[in-house]
UniProtKB/TrEMBL annotation:
Keywords, ordered alphabetically: Methyltransferase, Transferase
Methyltransferase domain sequence ranges: 53-143
SUPFAM superfamilies, per database record: S-adenosyl-L-methionine-dependent methyltransferases
Origin: domain of life: Bacteria
Record carries keyword Methyltransferase: yes
Pfam families hit by this protein: Methyltransf_25
Residue ranges of coiled coil: none
Protein name, as recorded: Methyltransferase domain-containing protein
Length: 234
């Protein structure tokens, strides 16, 4: 499947019904586990008046949480019109509509990219995209300071789980597919854009990596929030 077809399938899968379900769950339980890990790490960074580019931002959870933490502006890109509609409603209800912008489409194929942002995030997005190299290269190129993203652990049980999900989608004629991409290749694409990993978190299924632009190391007035890497048990 090419990326355009996959983008269309993504928009169909994440329907208004799914978007409203995710909103109810967020209001009831707060951010999902991987989102919480990304938030914990990003809150260690200087966020006051920073700009956020949230790729595949869904119902806008990262944008909402980081605006509350001091971020100045948010641009969210998503292939699902239903998700963008819910995100826009959420931002408006919190009085943040003027500080946010919503872009519909496949980020890796946008004719005109958003302006570079201080912080770029991709939460559970890489696993939904076949051409991860194009996606991450563009995301890294839009990062002024920090990039945070989550992706599935490359383990047999995760691959088995996703294979079953994809088999069921094939049986039910659902064109959407999920992927477990090689972590070393994910890192190589990001590091080729002069970013270095400063944190790693994870659980049994998901990994979260935080990268920082190398030329920020000597930038006066911008502290580097670093932590020792925490590798999950194998």
């Amino acid at each position: 499947m090419d990326c355009c077809a996959h983008c269309i399938a993504t928009g169909l899968l994440f329907s208004p019904k799914v978007a409203e379900r995710d909103l109810r769950r967020y209001r009831r339980k707060g951010p999902d586990s991987t989102t919480r890990l990304i938030l914990e790490e990003l809150r260690r960074q200087p966020l006051e008046e920073a700009s956020l580019l949230d790729i595949g931002g869904g119902i806008g959870v990262l944008g909402l949480e980081l605006l509350a933490a001091g971020v100045g502006t948010v641009v969210e890109v998503d292939a699902s019109p239903a998700y963008l509609a819910v995100a826009g409603r959420q931002f408006a209800e919190h009085g943040w509509a003027e500080r946010t912008a919503l872009l519909a489409g496949d980020f890796a194929a946008l004719a005109v990219l958003p302006e570079p942002a201080d912080v770029v995030t991709l939460d559970r997005v890489v696993c939904c995209y076949p051409d991860y190299e194009a996606l991450l290269a563009r995301a890294a190129g839009c990062t002024r300071r920090v990039l945070g993203f989550s992706y599935p652990r490359d383990r047999w049980y995760v691959r088995w789980m996703m294979a079953l999900e994809n088999l069921w989608r094939r049986i039910t004629r659902n064109a959407f597919r999920s992927f477990v991409h090689p972590p070393a290749r994910l890192a190589a694409v990001i590091e080729s854009s002069a970013l270095r990993r400063v944190a790693r978190r994870g659980n049994a299924i998901w990994m979260v990596d935080i990268y920082q632009r190398r030329d920020n190391d000597a930038h006066a007035g911008i502290p580097i929030a670093r932590r020792s890497e925490s590798q999950p048990r194998r």
